[in-house]
User: Fold this.
Amino acid sequence: MQTFLAIAFVLLLTLFLIWKRHKVQLQKLIFPLFYVVMYRTKFGLRAMNWIGTRLGMIVRPLSTLGIGIGFAGMGLIIFELGRTIYMLFTSPVAPAGVGIVQPFVPNVPGTVFVPFLYFLASIAIIAILHEAAHGVVARAYNIKIHSSGFAFMSILVPVIPAAFVEPDEKTMKKRPLKQQLAVFAAGAVTNIVMAFVVLGFFALVLEPVVLAVADFEGIRVAGFANVSAARDAGITEGELITHVDGVELHDLSNYSAFLAPHHPGETIVITTNVSEYPVVLGTHPENSSKAYLGITPKPEIGPSPEFSAKYGTLTAEFILWLIGLFFWLYLLSMGIGLFNLLPLGPVDGGRMLYALLTTYMPKEKAERIFGWTSTLMLGMILMTIGGAIFL
Assistant:
């Protein structure tokens, strides 16, 4: 069903863009394989202008703080990429740290599958807030915005929706470095802040709701590491783990607690909805003294019978769907925010680095260093994705 919805969305979007082709601009990367479709509007410009100009006294100091957060995030994502590559080459069971987000087919190596409705809602919220933040900070520094609009990352056909705002580039280049960095960092930092807000909201408000509405049913095997004790024992993807050594699982922490006292080489009995399996535990990739099952665990939750009896099954399922949306909103906000801080080509982190280099170096030298850095970052990303597929 999710795949059908995703394909239908792509087809309808393609037809819409063909119909509006006179308002569409293509940015050809490796056309027609990879390209970006841009559909310009005036969407949100009044709101950005009002917030940026009326609340400038608040926006400007916050945006300055955002510069520090942006560079800290840049350092963090570079470190994580490097750590992941190191683990890929030193541990055969290391998971990939970067994956292409896609809503089409689950369990494709090198990708992160997000159910289509979650994908569409999350990306729309993240993209709109991201670009609105750029626009608000630009207006706070009295930088004109020419247009806003929607963009679509395309692999043969439009696939991933995005948004954009276009501040006046000539004015931007004449502004002090601090103002340029503040505008460039605003989008990614807003996404990261939103991720923490969603996490806090979940912990303070939604967790009690989950306990009331949800009924934990077990651990779904959502995937396997490259070396997996569970897969070697005969467990297949999609099975539901309900017991470990005869004891029922009550939640995800309960599952982790069962593994904690065990050591590599020990045998445990795992019961699923299919069968019982004696499993010889492997070695954890980051700690050789810890046992490792080698699965991607996904908590399986369903509506609580008590809640459903009182309020109806549809109400319970809708609340659970909203909880799932908050989970993906947190995960994608954090991931997209950090990814955008990479010192790579056209993303926010790349623009931050380019502005920094061209301020303190001759332009030719700055562009040479920036090109080397972008190439290195792209290579690291491809290595982590390739490692997930081939290693």
Notes: The chain is about 55% helix and 25% strand. Residues 2-207+332-390 form one domain. The mean pLDDT is 86. The first helix runs from residue 2 to 19.
